[in-house]
Amino acid sequence: MTRALVVHHDIDLADQEVDSLRRLGYVVQQCSGPTANTCPILNGGSCPLAEASDVLVYDVWASGDVEGSTRLIDGLRRMHPHAPIVLTFPGMGLADLGEAPERGIVTMFGQPTGANLDAAIRRAIASLAPNAA
């Protein structure tokens, strides 16, 4: 079973994402992110929840602002370089994610339904496979 960490600033949307993934067979942990907790990633450390996960599903606005979101994404990639990351964009996205596809980051715009999340997770995992382009 794939272990996923869902980080979302909106608890209701997070609950929906978690429930959807659990129905699809994922083992899911949930965190409300840096807007509600001290984030080890933003403090230059490693996240124990991320370490225990096979894939990271983050609300792009988990930190509350563009600068914090960019720092969070960069920190996740630096501290957990082999973790596939799915960034959910329920509305407006970040202007620049740099070389996201080469870094194992998949963006998912629109409604985070179970099917959409599952497809994005599969793409993120595949993007880090040794033979992935």
Helix count, per DSSP?
4
Query: Termini, distance in Å?
Result: 25 Å
Q: Which geometry do the CA atoms define? A: globular
What is the CATH architecture annotation? 3-Layer(aba) Sandwich
Strand content: 15-25%
- Would you tell me which CATH topology applies? Rossmann fold
Q: Can you summarize the main beta sheet?
A: 5 strands, parallel
Which structural class do you get from the secondary structure elements? Answer: alpha/beta
Low-confidence spans: pLDDT under 50, at least 5 residues? none
The helix content is 25-40%
Short description:
The chain is 34% helix and 19% strand. By secondary structure, it is of the alpha/beta class.
Describe the structure.
This protein is an alpha/beta fold and 133 residues long. It has one domain: Response regulator (Rossmann fold, 3-Layer(aba) Sandwich). The protein contains 4 helices and 5 strands. It has a 5-stranded parallel β-sheet with strand order 2-1-3-4-5, covered by helices on one side. Helix 1 crosses helix 4 (114-127). The radius of gyration is 13 Å and the shape is globular.
Strand-helix topology:
Blueprint (H helix, E strand, L loop, with lengths): L2 E5 L3 H13 L3 E5 L16 H4 L3 E5 L6 H14 L5 E5 L15 E5 L4 H14 L6
Parallel strand pairs: 1-2, 1-3, 3-4, 4-5
Helix pairs in contact: 1-4
Task: Identify the notable features of this structure and list them briefly.
133 residues, alpha/beta, Rossmann fold, 5-stranded parallel beta sheet, 5 strands
